[in-house]
Design a protein that fits this description.
By secondary structure, the chain is an alpha/beta fold. It contains 11 helices and 11 strands. The strands form 4 sheets. The protein has a 5-stranded parallel sheet, with helices on both faces. Strands 4-8 form a two-stranded antiparallel ribbon. Strands 5-6 form a two-stranded antiparallel sheet. A hairpin with a 2-residue loop joins strand 9 and strand 10.
Length: about 325
């Protein structure tokens, strides 16, 4: 039976909500079928106060075995390196993280904030937030670039805002069942199983990307153009399976019903939304809306007029002519 301790840092709890809504496998299956022993979790743990602190101290000292240490949210080092902006169990959270990461066999960062700092680490970063082993795309973070757990592994990053529940549970199952060697990591320490292909794979708008036909406003549905050229969607350059492993088995942000960033429910948000590239530590770096570098954002500038509409219409007419030439004559 593998034991898991899960703590929150500077987080919105979105990844916990994602985890609790997992389906393949769900949280009950993790515990009953795969024998996962959840030592303590902020939303599931029954112990409070001194009883909870005893669990943390025992895990940190090695008195209680801890196979997997899961951390969600940023490590807050402010003010002035003291970490006192985030006090947990009577001491700065960063001190718990340092001791527990050293004691764990495997360390897993869940969500963008834990992986590379996410939005809290964006300038001016008043809380001095950072990820466990990355700060944005630079290796280092709180634990340092050379950190390895007792199992000889770096921090395993499962990014996302939030991370898809299946990514979390399937990696935890692999770790809990001794298949750690099957998890190949990329240069950002992400499991290649989920982060080797681009988000664009499976996108319902991919044909418009190929013909450089852009949609001109939000809410135009999935059959009118690509969100890359005018709205800065980073799907063609972001690694994630969001259009292969759908949210609630039916949607992704680029489809008709956008996915709510925190609650993951299928809600109509007046049409599709562009991807912001957070799985590649890019979304928060370029500009607040997460658009691709060099692309104008409608939130900041408004859509281009005239030229884009004429260009989109020209591309569409050319595409129609190509199709008509290919079709057999009666």
């Amino acid at each position: 039976m593998a034991s898991v301790l899960w703590l929150h840092g500077g987080a919105c709890s979105g990844n916990t909500m994602s985890f609790l809504n997992a389906d393949e496998p769900n949280v009950v299956d993790l515990i009953v079928d795969f024998g996962l022993d959840i030592i303590w979790h902020p939303s599931l743990g029954m112990e409070l106060g001194d009883n909870a602190q005893k669990i943390f101290r025992d895990c940190a000292s090695g008195a209680r075995e801890m196979d997997i240490f899961v951390f969600e949210g940023t490590v807050i080092e402010g003010p002035n390196g003291t970490g006192r902006y985030n006090i947990f169990a009577d001491r700065p959270m960063k001190e718990w993280v340092e001791e527990l990461a050293a004691a764990a066999s495997i360390v897993v960062a869940i969500g963008d904030c834990a992986c590379w700092g996410g939005i809290p680490a964006a300038e001016p970063n008043p809380t001095s937030s950072t990820g466990l082993q990355f700060h944005k795309r630079s290796k280092g973070g709180f634990l340092g670039p050379d950190f390895v757990s007792k199992a000889g592994l770096p921090v395993i990053n499962i990014p996302g805002c939030p991370a898809h529940p299946d990514w979390i549970t399937q990696i935890l199952v692999a770790l809990a069942t001794g298949r750690t060697s099957d998890i190949a990591l990329d240069d950002l320490h992400r499991p290649q199983t989920f982060f080797k292909t681009f988000t664009q794979t499976g996108c319902t708008r991919v044909q418009f990307f190929e013909y450089k036909q852009s949609t001109l406003s939000f809410g135009e549905g999935t059959r009118t153009g690509c969100l890359f050229y005018e709205f800065g969607c980073r799907g063609p350059m972001t690694h994630s399976p969001c259009n292969r492993i759908l949210w609630n088995r039916q949607s992704s942000k680029t489809r008709r019903h956008a996915v709510h960033r925190v609650h993951r429910t299928r809600v109509p948000l007046h049409g599709p939304r562009p991807r912001n590239g957070v799985q590649d530590a890019e979304g928060e770096r370029d500009h607040p809306q997460g658009g691709a570098r060099g692309h104008r954002s409608p939130h900041l500038h408004g859509p281009r007029r005239g030229g884009t509409r004429r260009r989109a219409g020209l591309v569409q007419r050319r595409h129609v002519r190509r199709l008509s030439r290919r079709s057999p004559r009666a």
